[in-house]
Amino acid sequence: MNKTAYENAAPAGGHKKLHVFGRLLGYMLRFWPLTLTGIALSLASNYLALLGPRYLGTAIDAVSAETGVQMDVVWDSFRKMLVCYVLSAVLAYLMTVVMVQLSQKITYRMRRQLFESLTALPVSYFDTHTTGDIVSRISYDIDTVNATLSTDLVQVLTSIYTVLGSLYYMIRISRPLILVFAVTVPVSIAFTRLKAKKIQPLFRKRSRKLGELNGFAEEMLSGAKTIDAYDRAETMTERFDQKNREAVDAYYQAEYYGSVIGPSVNFINNLSLSLIMILGGILYLLSKNGTVAEGSVWFLTIGGVTQFVMYSRKFSGPINEFANILSEFQSAFTAAERIFRIVDEPPEEGDREGATALSRVAGEVNIDDVSFGYTPQKTVLHDLTIDAKPGSTVAIVGPTGAGKTTIINLLMRFYDVDSGHIYVDGTEIRDIRRDSLRGAYTMVLQDTWLFYGTIYENITYGREDASREEVIAAAKAAKIHSFIERLPDGYDTLLSDDGVNISKGQKQLITIARAMLPHTKMLILDEATSNVDSRTEIKIQEAMSRLMEGRTCFVIAHRLSTVKNADVILVVRDGNVIEQGNHEELLRKGGFYASLYNSQFS
User: Fold this and answer.
1) How far apart are CA 471 and CA 443, in angstroms?
2) Percent helix, strand, coil in the chain (nearest 5)?
3) pLDDT: is 523 or 462 the higher one?
4) 284 or 1, which is more confident
5) Are 302 and 60 spatial neighbours (Cβ–Cβ below 8 Å)?
6) Closest CA to 557 of 521, 514, 593
């Protein structure tokens, strides 16, 4: 199943669990050599462990034989039993090693698949989901699934063999004693199923609350300076305590009610063991006194009682073990559901059939009568029309929330218009392949983004084949070369997470240098100089002018000094273009633009 809605693909309740279980098995079957090896080793280990009680029973009967102790039988049985248990332990160890390797491969593939799905999602998904919750799924949820796959799943599957093998040997030893399990096993199963239905929602809540806690923590850490600046540490700590308390309570409830199953099933199994020993002792005494003849189904030796007790432990052990790890399975299934929800999220809508790639881009952009809203209830842009000639500069100004950045989102097809059309070189952008459309633009955004790597790698992010001379030329044009040269490792200086070891202004200059490398015909500058001081901004203007030469440029700016030389300035307010013209024309009109400009420079 590829990219279908998870809830539609998997029905609620037990069918959903089976669906998740089947998908997890699918990951295991992908690495079938390791999976089959692990199962084979587990089966062999369990088979040898099942032989041990047989030899022990034989040795006990040889010791209690009426004709005297048969030491040769005792030692022979003991040696065979010892060999079986040693080999079983060795095979169990090898099985553990194989399962660790298998779980590592599955975890790697699951994380890769999850990340690939994230990279294919539309921007709207990240606008509506917190980063912390997504990170929680990549790390915590996958680790939870991995723990179950590496330690529990194969063991449960092979335990079925142990249960059936033990049942076979118990039937051979004493069919009457089997009647005890006819009562206790159904009680265990019914109790486990009843509790499992009540526990599953608790584990879903636990995962959700942990995701919310991670999201809040990520948000607070990214805003630590702001929190300190406004002296809101105590308030944020109280809010974190609330989130933390909710997460801990959800975790406690899931673990508390989940932990009830194991001891309860343990009690039922211990009760069945006690009944077996009492009934087995009675049958042995009757057999010893001659009340029950040898060959009768009621006949039982002391060795047979010992064997039956040991097999009954092996029979009830996996059932008890499954009950004990049921909470872990519930947690793993919940985590897997959260992972598969992202994997099954519809990706960004594919290109139209027949969509073509842009070639020999001139850079003419026309926005024709476009309306758009992020939600059906609220329209952000109303009947917007813009015509940008090749090589022209279009500045978009206006108050916060006017819809300026929304225009950029539509140009890049991060979102599609609700009505109207956008054309590039006369072709409707929905008839252009997305990768080709976005590759025709270079963007410098207000929110700078640098990844963990060297300065050189960050500058060449948009064009990896750039030579070192081109990188240096771009850095010089962006007025950042001299700063880079003063660093101990120069262009090979390693930047930490998001470049936190350099200033915001320096990060902005590096992203501007990055934008100077690709040979695109269209450029988007969204508050590109917002993080530099006025003196640096003046120095950058010349470099920006060279960057903008021959390109169709869309410039969003609050500092109106940066848009004075634009060919056309669009004044956007409440999603409408209320004024347009060049700087001098708009000042002469004395309208909204003039009031904005005068408020900044009066």
Assistant:
1) 17
2) 65, 10, 25
3) 523
4) 284
5) yes
6) 593
Per residue in 119-139, pLDDT tens? 888 888 887 787 777 887 888
Cβ-Cβ contacts under 8 Å for 454 (sequence gap 6 or more): 489, 491, 492, 493, 494, 495
Q: Is 67 helix (H, G, I), strand (E, B) or coil?
A: coil
Please, where are the H alpha helices in 369-524?
404-411, 434-439, 455-459, 468-477, 481-486, 504-515
Quote the distance between the C-alpha of residue 560 and its chain's center.
42
Least confident of 63-77, 200-214, 355-369: 63-77
In sequence order, what DSSP letters do the residues of 108-122 get, joined into one string? HHHHHHHHHHHHHS-
Q: How many residues does the chain have?
A: 602
Q: Angle at the Cα of 339 (from 453 to 220), degrees rounded to 5?
A: 55
pLDDT band with cut points at 50, 70 and 90 for residue 8:
very low
Residue 275 has which token pair? 């009944």
Could you give phi then psi for residue 35, rounded to 5 degrees? Answer: -65, -50
Say if residues 122 and 348 touch (Cβ distance below 8 Å). yes
Phi, psi at 5, each rounded to 5° = -60, 130
Helix (H) or strand (E) holding 366: strand 365-372
Residues 37-57: pLDDT tens digits? 988 898 898 889 888 888 888
pLDDT band at 222 (very low <50, low <70, confident <90, very high): low
- Residue listed under structure tokens 């009757």: 286
Higher pLDDT, 406 or 231: 406
Tokens standing for residue 139: 């790390």
**CA distances in angstroms from 532 to 222, 403, 545, listed in the order given:** 20, 24, 17
169, 491, 494 from 453: Cα distances, Å: 63, 11, 5
The tokens of 485 are what? Answer: 């040269």
Name the residue with tokens 């609330």: 242
| CA pair distance 251, 435, nearest whole angstrom | 43
Alpha carbon distance 279, 173 (integer Å)? 14
Residue 90 pLDDT:
94
Residue 580 predicted with pLDDT over 80: yes
Q: Would you state the pLDDT for residue 123?
A: 83
State both tokens at 355.
Answer: 């969509």
Task: Provide the whole-model pTM.
Answer: 0.66
